[in-house]
C-alpha cells in the first residue's frame, strides 16, 4: 500500500509540474514512509509521483513509478494484488519476462498482454495510473469494492489525481470549496461518492477506469465490474461449505507479504473467524492485537481472550483511556482526509498495530454487509409497506417532534437514497437547515437528486439492504475511515471478506441461504466448528469506544464559543446526554472547517 499522485497538463511547465507533484507526495508521506519516486514525460506534460509502503518485494527493484516493455508502460500503484503469483505463472507461459518479485510488475505485464481487459483479472485492493506511451493514453483504475481511494479532477485540458483530497490543495492550481459538502456530511455522516469537500475533485467510482486521451485531452470512464452473478447454491449445507472454503482461501491470499502481517481481533464474530483461519495458516507467526477500556461495559476482553487462547502466535491487548484521546485528538483530526462522524477507533487500532511493528493488519470489515449483520436487513419489509403511503403523508413526518420519526419523511423521495437515509440518516433536513442557516427545500432537492446506481432497482429485501450497506455505508464511511486512519500510521488494512473471489462465491448463494434467520447465520454455521460458543452465541456489540462519556466529560468539543446559532443549542443537548457524540463531533468539524 502506498500513496500516488499525478498531473497531466500540456499547458504547464515541466518544472512547475514537478514541484506540484512533489508537494502532493510530501503531503501524503505518512502513507508511504519507505521511499518516494517520480516519473515525467515533458512532451505531453505528464508527471507521476509515488510514496511507497513496502510489503511485497522490499528490494529496490520494487521502486515506483515502475516502467515496463522498454519504457513504453509506466505505473504508479497503491495497493496489493493477491493473485499476482498465479497471473505471473500464466504470463510467463505466454512468454512475458519479469525482472522483479513485485506484484506491480505483474499489473504491467498483464496490461501489455490483455489491455484494459486485464483489470477484471486482478484480485486485490488497488488504485493505480498506467501511462501507455504507444497508445498515448493514461488509465486511472480503482478496485471493484473501492477499498483503495482514488480522486481526480479534470477541468479545461488537464487531469490531476491523488490518493487523498488534501493533496490537491498543495498544488499551484486553485480549487474551490464544494458549496454542498456540509449538507451531504450532515445528512449522511460522511461525504458520499462521488463528492468531496472540493468542487471539482471527485472520487473515481469503484470497479471503473478513467482513460485520458493525451492527443484529444479528454477522458472517458468505463466499468470493469462483475455484475449479476447467477445463483448456483440453494441449500444450507452447500452454502456453509462454500463460505468456509472460499473465506479460508481469501485469508490465505491476503497473508502474503515480505513484511510482518497481523490480525485485528475485536472479539466479534468476523474478526474472530479471520484470526482463527490465519492461525491455521501461519500458527506461531500470527500476531493479533486487541483494544480494551477501563469502562467494563465496553470491554470485550473475555471474548478476545477466548479466541486468542485458541491461537499459537503472539497476542497483545492495549487499553485506551480518556486521556489518550485528549493527548492524540489533534493528530486524529489531522489524519482525516475528509470529514467523518467516526474513525477515532480506527486511528487507535492502527496506532497499536504500528507499535507492534506490523505493516499490515487483517480486518473483518464487510461481513455485516454481506450476511445481514445490521438491523436494516430486517427493516426492508417495513420500508416497502411505508412507501405505499401517500407521498404527502410521508412528507408530513417532518412535523413530528422526534428526530427519529422525522426520518420517515425521507421515504417521500422519488429516489432510493431516501430508503438509505431513513435507515441511516444522520441529521434530518429540518435540523440541517437550522445548523447551516439555509432553506430546507434546497436540502431536500439536493438529496433527492443524489446520483445512485441503477443496478439497485432490480433488488429487494435483504439484497437491497446489502447493496445500500455496501455501496453507501461501507464504501463511503468504513473503508474511507479505515484507509486514511491506517495510512496515517503507515499501516495497511486488508479485508478478506471483500476479496473479489469470495464476493463472487457469496453472490452465487441463493437469498434464503445467504440471509439466514439470524444475523450472519450462514457465516456462523460455516465456522461454528472452530468458533468458541461464547463468540457466536451472544448479542451483537460492535467495536465501540466510550466516546459519549469521554467527549461529554472533557473539553475537546464542548466549548460553546466555537459554535454559533442552532449548533450551540445542540452542543448543550450533548453536554446533558441528549445528543449522540458522533453528531456533536460532526458539529465540531463543521464549526472548525476552513470556510
Automatic annotation (TrEMBL):
<feature type="binding site">
    <location>
        <position position="291"/>
    </location>
    <ligand>
        <name>ATP</name>
    </ligand>
</feature>
<feature type="active site" description="For GATase activity">
    <location>
        <position position="2"/>
    </location>
</feature>
<keyword id="KW-0061">Asparagine biosynthesis</keyword>
<dbReference type="Pfam" id="PF13537">
    <property type="entry name" value="GATase_7"/>
</dbReference>
<feature type="binding site">
    <location>
        <position position="103"/>
    </location>
    <ligand>
        <name>L-glutamine</name>
    </ligand>
</feature>
<keyword id="KW-0436">Ligase</keyword>
<dbReference type="InterPro" id="IPR001962">
    <property type="entry name" value="Asn_synthase"/>
</dbReference>
<dbReference type="InterPro" id="IPR014729">
    <property type="entry name" value="Rossmann-like_a/b/a_fold"/>
</dbReference>
<dbReference type="InterPro" id="IPR051786">
    <property type="entry name" value="ASN_synthetase/amidase"/>
</dbReference>
<dbReference type="InterPro" id="IPR029055">
    <property type="entry name" value="Ntn_hydrolases_N"/>
</dbReference>
<dbReference type="GO" id="GO:0006529">
    <property type="term" value="P:asparagine biosynthetic process"/>
</dbReference>
<dbReference type="InterPro" id="IPR006426">
    <property type="entry name" value="Asn_synth_AEB"/>
</dbReference>
<dbReference type="GO" id="GO:0005829">
    <property type="term" value="C:cytosol"/>
</dbReference>
<keyword id="KW-0547">Nucleotide-binding</keyword>
<comment type="pathway">
    <text>Amino-acid biosynthesis; L-asparagine biosynthesis; L-asparagine from L-aspartate (L-Gln route): step 1/1.</text>
</comment>
<keyword id="KW-0315">Glutamine amidotransferase</keyword>
<dbReference type="GO" id="GO:0004066">
    <property type="term" value="F:asparagine synthase (glutamine-hydrolyzing) activity"/>
</dbReference>
<comment type="similarity">
    <text>Belongs to the asparagine synthetase family.</text>
</comment>
<dbReference type="InterPro" id="IPR017932">
    <property type="entry name" value="GATase_2_dom"/>
</dbReference>
<keyword id="KW-0067">ATP-binding</keyword>
<dbReference type="Pfam" id="PF00733">
    <property type="entry name" value="Asn_synthase"/>
</dbReference>
<dbReference type="InterPro" id="IPR033738">
    <property type="entry name" value="AsnB_N"/>
</dbReference>
<keyword id="KW-0028">Amino-acid biosynthesis</keyword>
<feature type="domain" description="Glutamine amidotransferase type-2">
    <location>
        <begin position="2"/>
        <end position="215"/>
    </location>
</feature>
<dbReference type="GO" id="GO:0005524">
    <property type="term" value="F:ATP binding"/>
</dbReference>
<protein>
    <recommendedName>
        <fullName>asparagine synthase (glutamine-hydrolyzing)</fullName>
        <ecNumber>6.3.5.4</ecNumber>
    </recommendedName>
</protein>
<feature type="binding site">
    <location>
        <begin position="363"/>
        <end position="364"/>
    </location>
    <ligand>
        <name>ATP</name>
    </ligand>
</feature>
Amino acid at each position: 500500500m502506498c500513496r500516488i499522485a499525478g498531473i497531466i497538463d500540456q499547458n504547464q511547465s515541466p518544472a512547475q509540474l514537478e514541484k506540484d507533484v512533489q508537494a502532493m507526495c510530501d503531503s501524503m508521506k505518512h502513507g508511504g514512509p519507505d521511499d518516494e519516486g517520480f516519473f515525467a514525460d515533458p512532451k505531453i506534460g505528464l508527471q507521476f509521483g509515488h510514496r511507497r509502503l513496502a510489503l511485497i518485494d522490499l528490494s529496490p527493484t520494487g521502486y515506483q513509478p515502475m516502467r515496463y516493455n522498454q519504457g513504453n508502460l509506466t505505473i504508479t500503484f497503491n495497493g496489493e494484488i493477491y493473485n499476482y503469483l498465479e497471473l505471473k505463472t500464466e504470463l510467463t507461459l505466454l512468454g512475458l519476462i519479469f525482472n522483479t518479485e513485485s506484484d506491480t510488475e505483474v499489473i504491467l505485464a498483464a496490461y501489455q498482454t490483455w489491455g484494459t481487459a486485464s483489470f477484471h483479472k486482478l484480485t486485490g485492493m488497488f488504485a493505480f495510473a498506467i501511462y501507455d506511451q504507444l497508445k498515448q493514453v493514461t488509465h486511472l483504475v480503482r478496485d471493484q469494492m473501492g477499498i483503495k481511494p482514488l480522486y481526480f479532477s479534470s477541468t479545461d485540458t488537464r487531469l490531476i489525481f491523488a490518493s487523498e483530497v488534501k493533496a490537491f490543495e498543495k498544488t499551484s492550481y486553485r480549487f474551490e470549496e464544494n458549496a454542498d459538502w456540509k449538507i451531504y456530511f450532515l445528512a449522511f455522516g460522511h461525504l458520499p461518492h462521488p463528492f468531496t469537500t472540493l468542487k471539482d475533485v471527485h472520487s473515481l467510482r469503484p470497479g471503473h477506469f478513467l482513460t485520458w486521451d493525451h492527443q484529444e485531452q479528454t477522458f472517458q470512464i468505463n466499468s470493469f465490474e462483475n455484475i449479476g452473478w447467477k445463483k448456483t447454491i440453494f441449500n444450507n449445507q452447500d452454502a456453509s461449505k462454500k463460505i468456509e472454503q472460499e473465506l479460508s482461501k481469501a485469508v490465505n491470499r491476503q497473508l502474503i507479504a515480505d513484511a510482518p502481517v497481523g490480525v485485528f481481533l475485536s472479539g466479534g464474530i468476523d474478526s474472530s473467524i479471520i484470526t482463527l483461519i490465519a492461525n491455521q495458516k501461519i500458527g506461531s507467526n500470527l500476531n493479533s492485537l486487541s483494544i480494551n477500556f477501563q469502562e467494563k461495559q465496553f470491554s470485550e476482553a473475555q471474548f478476545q481472550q477466548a479466541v486468542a487462547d485458541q491461537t499459537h502466535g503472539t497476542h497483545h491487548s492495549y487499553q485506551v483511556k480518556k486521556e489518550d484521546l485528549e493527548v492524540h485528538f489533534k493528530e486524529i483530526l489531522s489524519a482525516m482526509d475528509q470529514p467523518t462522524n467516526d474513525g477515532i477507533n480506527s486511528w487507535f487500532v492502527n496506532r497499536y498495530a504500528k507499535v507492534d511493528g506490523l505493516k499490515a493488519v487483517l480486518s473483518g470489515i464487510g461481513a455485516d454487509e454481506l450476511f445481514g449483520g445490521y438491523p436494516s436487513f430486517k427493516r426492508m419489509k417495513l420500508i416497502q409497506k411505508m412507501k405505499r403511503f401517500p407521498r404527502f403523508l410521508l412528507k408530513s413526518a417532518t412535523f413530528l417532534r422526534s428526530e427519529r420519526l422525522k426520518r420517515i419523511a425521507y421515504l417521500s423521495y422519488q429516489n432510493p437514497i431516501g430508503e438509505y437515509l431513513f435507515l441511516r440518516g444522520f441529521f434530518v433536513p429540518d435540523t440541517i437547515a437550522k445548523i447551516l442557516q439555509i432553506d430546507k427545500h434546497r436540502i431536500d432537492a439536493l438529496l433527492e437528486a443524489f446520483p445512485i446506481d441503477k443496478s439497485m432497482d432490480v433488488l429487494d429485501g435483504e439484497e437491497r439492504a446489502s447493496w445500500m450497506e455496501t455501496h453507501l455505508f461501507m464504501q463511503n464511511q468504513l473503508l474511507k475511515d479505515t484507509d486514511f486512519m491506517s495510512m496515517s500510521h503507515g499501516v495497511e488494512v486488508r479485508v478478506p471478506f471483500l476479496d473479489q473471489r469470495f464476493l463472487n462465491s457469496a453472490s452465487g448463494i441463493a437469498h434464503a441461504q445467504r440471509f439466514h434467520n439470524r444475523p450472519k447465520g450462514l457465516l456462523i454455521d460455516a465456522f461454528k466448528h472452530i468458533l468458541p460458543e461464547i463468540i457466536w452465541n451472544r448479542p451483537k456489540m460492535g467495536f465501540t469506544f466510550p466516546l459519549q462519556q469521554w467527549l461529554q466529560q472533557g473539553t475537546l468539543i464542548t466549548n460553546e464559543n466555537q459554535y454559533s446559532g442552532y449548533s450551540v443549542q445542540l452542543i448543550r443537548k450533548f453536554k446533558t446526554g441528549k445528543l449522540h457524540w458522533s453528531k456533536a463531533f460532526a458539529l465540531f468539524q463543521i464549526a472548525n472547517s476552513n470556510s
